[in-house]
Structure formats: C-alpha cells, structure tokens
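Session log. Operator J.P. requested a structure for one protein chain; no other inputs attached. Running the standard single-chain path with token output.
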Amino acid sequence: MDFSKKVADLALRSKHASKLALTEEATKTSVVLPFIQALGFDVFNLEEVTPEFIADVGIKKGEKIDFALRIGGKIAILIEVKPISMMLGTAQYSQLFRYFSTVEARLAILINGREVWFFSDIDERNKMDKKPFFVFDLQAYDERQVSELARFQKNNFDIDSILEAASNLKWVKAASNYLTAQLKAPDD
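Structure written below.
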C-alpha cells in the first residue's frame, strides 16, 4: 500500500478514535500503533519497537516513555502518547523533554492520536528543542505534509536529511512569522 493511502487510513482511525477512545491505551491501540506500522516498523518486534522503554532521569528511576523505535539496533525515535481527548501542550512537552537527554535518539514524537509533534535537538545537541519543527494533524493535512511525514519511514530514514529539513522548516517558519508580523504592524 502506498504511503498516502496509509496516511488516509490513519486519518479515518483518528476521526473514529476522537469519538470512542477515552484513554491513552485506547489511543495507542487505535491510532498510535497503526501510525508506527505506517512508518514501516514492526510493532510486534521488540528489536524495532520497545513499549514502556525505561528512560531513567537523574535520581528518578523507572521513568518510562511509551515507545522507543530502533533502526539498526540504535534508538532513533522516542514516542510519548497522550489520550486523543487531551490537547498537546507544555505539560506533555516537559515530560518528553526529560526523557530526551537520557538516550541516544535525535528525534522525539509527542502524539495524541490526532496531532503528531516532531522534536529534535537543533538548537542544542542532546537537549530537545522547545518547539516542534513539524506538526502533522492526522485529520487535516495536505500532500506536501504527507511528503514531509514520509521522511520518518524506516526504509527512508536518514537522520542527517531529517535534521537538515528540520532546521530549514524552523528558519522558514521564523521568517514567515516575522514577515507576517511586519505586514500587520511594520517597524519604523
């Protein structure tokens, strides 16, 4: 099945889950695991997808992140899941931020079954950026965004290319925000 079709199927799952998934576990089962599969990972292979990955933070032992995705035996992506009914925000970000610096991954995903926020460490190595470099809404997207999402597929995965694209997206967004602000209220 082509990737665009997989994303369209995920969109239907997300809309359905919006009505029925009341918990984080229901969100994981109905949307997140199919999302991970759509990216080309075998959710039943613990060498690729580790659920409840232990990411000890300082003196806090036994801290767990929902999923760690491995490519070539190395942790490539961390995923923190929230219920589809919960808006993503600062509280969820800070939890993922704590985990990020404890492992070798350069990418992190915060997902609630509708929105998928992608983070990296562009600003400072091994410290997760405060803002996502890419946000994908499973219920409202365009083909350009699907092409960006395709970069995260296991068979296309190239961390250097992803980080370069992330940096470019960050600067384009900053330039766009600046120009928009200037159009609304120009500086002298």
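Operator note: The mean pLDDT is 86.
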